[in-house]
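Key result, reporting period 2: structure in, sequence out.
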């Protein structure tokens, strides 16, 4: 009897979990993915992002799962636009935790409970997968993929401030509803920069982010990402977010010793380099070796500038949010700007609702 009561209490306290699946050229995988989603999920939102293969129509024709609702975009909005539409629908339907899966079958639905648990237990606001945790998995990855992800991870650490996370482009995520509701949805990047920009936006909320080790499933899926085309977008986005983060955290919201260290480091380092280069040029042009005083005058600002910047970096790495903010956010927290996604309709089991 006690065991039965305990099981009933656990079931009653379990959060309402929704899954959002953006769909674009995933016709071969979407039905298998939906069939593998377990009973711990109450809602499944399939967002057909103007898929040329008609993934949404296929789901409506073949899937009989009453949890599944298909949302159609009239025009392609990118993975970020599709996910934000799914968030909007799930929040309106009362979801408490929202899990995002890609429709290409790379993300194992059996892990959903593991992604939800840290949020349900009050240990995190946002959980993201990390495919690089297991060293054996890392060894099996192509060198280009490994190096590219390492570079993107470092840029994301700088721009978002989450120094402990890796694999920033991993789209297997879970988010607490109050945090999703508080995000400025109208400002988040819509396309391939979406996952990285999400981390930056979560940082502005001081949300607690947790990396969850996972193993990716690679089969015959085909990536729609053109690395050459998106590289300038990623670099520009990270630089922009890095500047915003420094201004928001160290000057707008507060001013601390770290703020002074940053200012002094940014001022002294270029001054020392400029003096050193000027002294080197004068010595080279005249053939007269630089004096000890000239060398010290150049070296001292450089050394002090580097030391100040290293101290600031140490402070910044220790300032990663550790406590969830979701429980502190009001259920009526602003929902942000609504995503600018034109919808053609929302359909569940043949029922057409007005978008």
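The corresponding designed sequence is given below.
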């Amino acid at each position: 009897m006690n065991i039965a009561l305990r099981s009933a209490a656990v079931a009653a306290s379990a959060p309402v979990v929704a899954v959002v699946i953006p769909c674009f050229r995933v016709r071969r995988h979407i039905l298998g993915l939906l069939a593998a989603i377990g009973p711990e999920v109450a809602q499944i939102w399939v967002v057909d992002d103007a898929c040329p293969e008609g993934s949404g129509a296929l789901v409506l024709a073949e899937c009989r799962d009453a949890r599944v609702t298909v949302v159609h975009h009239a025009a392609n909005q990118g993975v970020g636009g599709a996910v934000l539409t799914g968030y909007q629908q799930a929040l309106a339907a009362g979801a408490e935790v929202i899990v995002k899966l890609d429709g290409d079958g790379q993300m194992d639905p059996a892990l959903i409970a593991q992604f939800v648990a840290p949020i349900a237990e009050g240990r995190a606001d946002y959980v993201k997968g990390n495919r690089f945790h297991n060293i054996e998995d890392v060894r099996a990855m192509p060198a280009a993929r490994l190096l590219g992800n390492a570079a993107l991870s470092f840029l994301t650490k700088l721009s978002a401030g989450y120094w402990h996370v890796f694999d920033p482009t991993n789209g297997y995520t879970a988010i607490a509803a109050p945090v999703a509701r508080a995000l400025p949805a109208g400002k988040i990047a819509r396309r391939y920069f979406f996952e990285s920009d999400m981390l930056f936006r979560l940082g502005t909320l001081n949300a607690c982010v947790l990396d969850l080790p996972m193993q990716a499933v690679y089969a015959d899926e085909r990536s729609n990402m053109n690395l050459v085309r998106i590289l300038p977008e990623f670099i520009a986005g990270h630089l922009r977010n890095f500047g915003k983060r420094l201004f928001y955290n160290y000057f707008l919201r507060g001013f601390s010793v770290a703020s002074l260290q940053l200012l002094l480091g940014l001022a002294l380092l270029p001054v020392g380099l400029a003096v050193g280069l000027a002294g080197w040029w004068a010595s080279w042009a005249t053939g007269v070796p630089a004096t000890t005083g000239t060398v010290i005058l150049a070296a001292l600002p450089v050394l002090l500038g580097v030391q100040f910047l290293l101290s600031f970096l140490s402070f910044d790495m220790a300032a990663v949010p550790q406590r969830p903010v979701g429980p502190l956010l009001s259920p009526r927290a602003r929902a942000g700007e609504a995503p600018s996604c034109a919808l053609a309709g929302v359909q569940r089991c043949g029922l057409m609702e007005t978008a």
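The chain has two domains: 2-251+324-353, 256-318. Residues 3-10, 333-340, 349-355 have pLDDT under 50 and may be disordered. This case is discussed further under Risks and Mitigation.
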